[in-house]
Write a structure and sequence with these properties.
Layout (H helix, E strand, L loop, with lengths): L3 H22 L3 E6 L5 E8 L20 E5 L8 E8 L4 E8 L5 E4 L1
Parallel strand pairs: 1-6
Antiparallel strand pairs: 1-3, 2-4, 4-5
Amino acid sequence: MVSRRFVTVAAVAAVLASVAVPAAALDRRVKIVNVTGYTMVRFYGSNTGSDSWEEDILGRDVLPSGDSVIINFDDASGYCKFDFKAVFEDGDELVKEGVNVCEIGTFTYR
């Protein structure tokens, strides 16, 4: 016979497990990998609801080819979809729209 206390503990554990999974799914940290053969000199990531690219996330840093950086895209907006813009030392710009940072862990520029 199963006790009422065991059923209550099991139910609470099930609820906590179901809450923990969505919280982990909202992790907005993404590893940006550069394997283009060119140094990335600027990188922008703006939520799809924004009208501008905001500031250069790399700032004074650069991302050489073969390196990576982890960026937290949690801007408190609640957005999961972001547009990325990478600018390279040769002047090339690569734009990718609608990247779901809640679902991916790595984004690679090739």
